[in-house]
Write a structure and sequence with these properties.
6% of the residues lie in helices and 48% in strands. It has four helices and 24 strands.
């Protein structure tokens, strides 16, 4: 069973006042009913949908992005709360004549739900088109719920609410359109309760919002680093692999970008006997392989850093750049 934790890195983003394009509307709504009847989990195709209505806009909207967030906790009438990290959303290719996900510049990697805006589409390569006639792009989304013994505690005939907000912004981060829809799902597994290993992964304290700062010429020449002691905690009763990926290929600002592999990550335990180092990438990478911790939490230090004399940094324009990292614990 995979465990995911999302870490926002370089999270300071300054944008101007929001505006809106009256000719672009976003309409989110519920698609197919979500039901979970097995401890193995479930995948519901087309559980949600969003329609993008484009009508006589007078200029191309470049580098637009579509975000999604969970608007409220997923609770039911019994007072039970469902963990959003156990639920993932996956975008599908839109109905033609809309552009494909590849043409837009995104993919169908499942993304864990969060109370923060998560990019489903980031800096689209296909602009919203100008023109004197109406267009409609229809996107559907699958909902994937993790399986596992944890479902026993949230088992109920009473429906859980799942209220999602879809937000469309332009290349400058200004609001174009937004829509919220309220769905529900039921959790009542009827097969045999599994006996499972224990896994958990947690980013601690200030490591949740990692920041690297370049302030002097020496920083650009020698590189910078930021250490987060005990920034990561892992619990596993089996051998495992720790993997990481950036959700975007670049660190981006409003007007500029840097390759995400300009930043490196090193993770080590307190005595330096276990850990690894990678350059960040938008592809999953294994940072290190670990043995089980006998159900006891094991802490690791995290270090983000850039290398000396990196021409990309020396030539970069001063700005605030960001990306989002996803950590994954894979049983071995």
């Amino acid at each position: 069973m995979n465990k995911h934790f999302v870490l926002v890195v370089f999270s300071l983003l300054l944008v101007g006042p929001f505006g809106a394009f009256s000719q672009v509307r976003l309409n989110a709504h519920v698609g197919n009913w979500i039901a979970l009847s097995s401890y193995k989990g479930s995948m519901t195709e087309g559980a949600y949908a969003s329609e993008l209505h484009i009508d006589r806009i007078d200029r191309r909207i470049q580098n637009w992005s579509l975000y999604i967030r969970l608007s409220q906790p997923m609770t039911n009438s019994e007072g039970k709360v469902f963990d959003p990290a156990r639920v993932k959303i996956r975008i599908n290719n839109p109905n033609p004549p809309a552009p494909t996900l590849q043409e837009i510049g995104t993919n169908d990697t499942p993304i864990p739900l969060s109370f923060s805006d998560m990019p489903i589409i980031a800096n689209s390569m296909t602009p919203l088109p100008v023109g004197g006639y109406y267009r409609q792009w229809n996107f559907t989304y699958d909902i994937i719920i993790d399986g596992g013994a944890y479902l026993e505690k949230v088992k109920s005939w009473q429906n859980y609410n799942m209220q999602l907000t879809f937000t469309l912004v332009d290349g400058e981060g200004k609001l174009v359109a937004e829509s919220t829809t309220l769905g529900s799902f039921q959790v009542y597994p009827q097969d045999q309760l599994p006996v499972e290993p224990t896994y958990s992964i947690q980013i601690n304290g200030s490591a949740r919002d990692g920041v690297l700062e370049f302030r002097t010429l020496s920083d650009y020449v020698n590189g910078v680093s930021q250490n987060y002691f005990n920034g990561l905690t892992i619990t596993s009763t089996t051998p495992y692999a720790l993997q990481v990926k950036a959700l975007t290929p670049n660190l981006t600002s409003v007007n500029n970008s840097l390759p995400v592999n300009a930043v490196n990550l090193r993770i080590t335990d307190a005595n330096g006997t276990l850990g690894g180092e990678v350059a960040l990438s938008d592809q999953l990478q294994t940072v290190f392989n670990g043995i089980n911790s006998n159900n006891l939490p094991r802490s690791f230090d995290m270090r983000y850093f850039t290398k000396p004399n990196d021409e990309r940094m020396l030539q970069a324009k001063p700005d605030s750049y960001k990306t989002t990292l996803m950590y994954t614990l894979i049983p071995q």
